[in-house]
Design goal:
228 residues, Metallo-beta-lactamase, Chain A, alpha/beta, 6 helices, 14 strands, seven-stranded mixed sheet, 29% strand
Length: 228
C-alpha cells in the first residue's frame, strides 16, 4: 500500500503506510479546523514534536485509550510517563530509531517548548521519516528557517511538510527558501489558517512554489488525503 498522508488541520497529520498508522501532533480538541475527533482515532504510533498545547493536543487521551506508542523527546517521554501513558519512546535530535513502520530521525527545530503544567518540555524537533516502502517524509513541525535544512535535503525527500503561518513559525517567504534548501519532490503547507493570526493564502503560496522552486506544491483541505 502506498504511503499516504491526511491533513487533520493545523499541524495534525495522519499517515498510513504498509498497514501501519502514525498520528503526528494531534491537536484536535479545541482546534477549529480539526477534521477528526480524538475518540475516533486509533493510531499505532503518535509522534509529538514539542509540548505546546496545539501539538501535544490529545496525545494523552488517545494513547491511554488505544495503547499507541508515543514517540517524542526524552524530557517529554518522562513527563508523559508520569501522566500515566504506558508506552513511550524517547529520542533526541540527530538520533534515529527503527520502528515497525519505518525509521524516525529527529531533526532540529527553531522554536520553544513547554508542557501544559509549565514543566520543561525539552527541545522541539522535526521528523525525518523513512517508511518501509522507501518513502521519505520530512515534517518540519514548528520552526523557523535554518541553513542545515540543506543537510536534511541531502537525505532525498519525497514530501516535505512545512509551516507557513508566520508569527510563530516561518512564513510563506521563508518557506520558499526552505524548499530551495530541502529540494523535495513535493511540499505541503501546514500550521496556517487555524486562527486569524496565522492566516495565509495557500493558493498564492503554491504559485510561488511553482515559480521559484522545482517542487510540486500539494495544497489540501483539512480531512483530505495526498499520496506521497
Amino acid at each position: 500500500m502506498a504511503t499516504r498522508v491526511r491533513w487533520l488541520g493545523h499541524a495534525a497529520l495522519w499517515i498510513e503506510s504498509d498497514g501501519q498508522t502514525v498520528l503526528i501532533d494531534p491537536f484536535l480538541t479545541g482546534n477549529p479546523t480539526a477534521a477528526a475527533k480524538a475518540g475516533d482515532l486509533a493510531p499505532d504510533f503518535i509522534l509529538v514534536s514539542h509540548g505546546h498545547p496545539d501539538h501535544l493536543g490529545d496525545t494523552i487521551a488517545i494513547a491511554k485509550t488505544t495503547g499507541a506508542i508515543v514517540v517524542c523527546n526524552y524530557e517529554m517521554s518522562e513527563w508523559l510517563t508520569r501522566q500515566g501513558v504506558s508506552k513511550v519512546h524517547g529520542q533526541q535530535h540527530g538520533g534515529a530509531h527503527a520502528f515497525v513502520f519505518g525509521r524516525v530521525k529527529f531533526t532540529q527545530a527553531f522554536h520553544g517548548s513547554s508542557l501544559p503544567d509549565g514543566s520543561y518540555g525539552g527541545n522541539p524537533c522535526g521528523f525525518l521519516i523513512t517508511f518501509r516502502d522507501g518513502t521519505k517524509v520530512y515534517d518540519a513541525a514548528d520552526t523557523g528557517l535554518f541553513g542545515d535544512m540543506r543537510l536534511i535535503g541531502e537525505e532525498g525527500i519525497d514530501l516535505a511538510i512545512l509551516p507557513i503561518g508566520d508569527n510563530y513559525t516561518m512564513g510563506p517567504e521563508d518557506s520558499i527558501r526552505a524548499i530551495k534548501l530541502l529540494t523535495p519532490k513535493k511540499v505541503m503547507p501546514i500550521h496556517y489558517n487555524t486562527f486569524d493570526l496565522i492566516a495565509q493564502d495557500a493558493d498564492a503560496w503554491a504559485r510561488a512554489v511553482r515559480q521559484q522552486t522545482q517542487a510540486q506544491p500539494v495544497v489540501i483541505k483539512p480531512g483530505e488525503w495526498t499520496t506521497v
